[in-house]
Amino acid sequence: MISVRNRLIDLCVALLVTGVLVLDGIHRVRTPPFWQFATAAVFVVFLLRRRYPLTTALVGVALSWFVPTTLLPPTFLLYNVAARRGPKWPTAVALGGSLALQLALHPLTSLAALESTGVVSVGFIVLPLLAGLWIYQRAALLDALRGRADQAERERDLLAERAVAAERRRIAREMHDVVAHRVSIVALQAGALSVRAPDEETGQLAEVIRESSAAALTELRDILRVLRDDVPEPSALPSPTLAGVARLAGDLTAAGARIVADLPEPLPQVPDQVGRAAYRIVQESLTNATKHAPGAAIHLRLGQEDGRLVVEVANPLGASAGLPGSGYGLIGMRERVTLAGGTLHTGPDGAGRYVVRAVFPPEKGTP
């Protein structure tokens, strides 16, 4: 497909060449017969030179007998063939036609004729041929460099994907070998304790621990499958939503935590991404509260203010339970809230409480 830019270039070159031929014909005393028609034909030939380089070169050689400046069209058209086809047989055919025209116009009848023919051949045949071949080789080199650059970019992306896949598999192995093993031990010990509990309350707490450990193992297996198989998201368990917040608070209450939940009935309708983010915010906040303020009352509130979903978890500042943390809880919460289009504020409120407050605008966070 010839671009508009190339068409304009062809038009300018055609006008330039035919303009020179017309001016030369006007100022000549004797001109070849039918030179006006031949000049018009040269104009058409130059418009088609990019699409049919060899054909237009041969036609240009034939038309040269009828135009005033005989060697001008073959010179441009020989360069065109060499630049389009390179060192191949079309260029050789066009070169042969130009040489035949040169010998027909300037026969080698004497040494002086040989010298003049050689000079003319260098200017009107050799130089255009070399210039066209240079342009062809330059374009071929640029194409080769672009191909190498594209290949290098594809190889770089492939190596990056392999490195990411290898790192994901390594993380999956570590999680399976360490985390899954430890959680399995907790589940087994909790199950044994629930069977041999000395009283009913201890048995119930042990059963809650066992169920939580089993659920954690199920979620962990789903996460490991995501890491190893690169699936879009876990499918073994339903995606957490705003409706799961009540069950989350109930599980922690059954495990001995003091949670005061203020949840509206019915729960507000929010996009899936906002629901997932809100659930994870509550989950992380309740976990942090039970670690850093064990035994204290934890206040959980879900509500709407001016059409915005508000999630708030507050607990008194107290002595930590000494449980280790990953150090990435607040970072993860902030990332989730930001991706859902909301804002997050954490820290003491000046009244002896630590507050986590997330606000999600209704127009943000659509899935």
UniProtKB/TrEMBL annotation:
One of its GO terms (molecular function) is protein dimerization activity. PANTHER family: NITRATE/NITRITE SENSOR PROTEIN NARX-RELATED, NITRATE_NITRITE SENSOR PROTEIN NARQ. It comes from Amycolatopsis saalfeldensis. Its EC number is 2.7.13.3. This is histidine kinase. SUPFAM superfamilies: ATPase domain of HSP90 chaperone/DNA topoisomerase II/histidine kinase (SSF55874). Keywords: ATP-binding, Coiled coil, Kinase, Membrane, Nucleotide-binding, Phosphoprotein, Transferase, Transmembrane, Transmembrane helix, Two-component regulatory system. Residues 167-230 form the Signal transduction histidine kinase subgroup 3 dimerisation and phosphoacceptor domain. It catalyses: ATP + protein L-histidine = ADP + protein N-phospho-L-histidine. InterPro entries: HATPase_C_sf, Sensor_HK_TwoCompSys, Sig_transdc_His_kin_sub3_dim/P. Pfam families: HisKA_3 (PF07730). Residues 142-169 form a coiled coil. GO terms for cellular component: membrane. The chain crosses the membrane at residues 52-79, 91-112, 118-136. The keyword Ribosomal protein does not apply. CDD domains: HATPase_UhpB-NarQ-NarX-like.
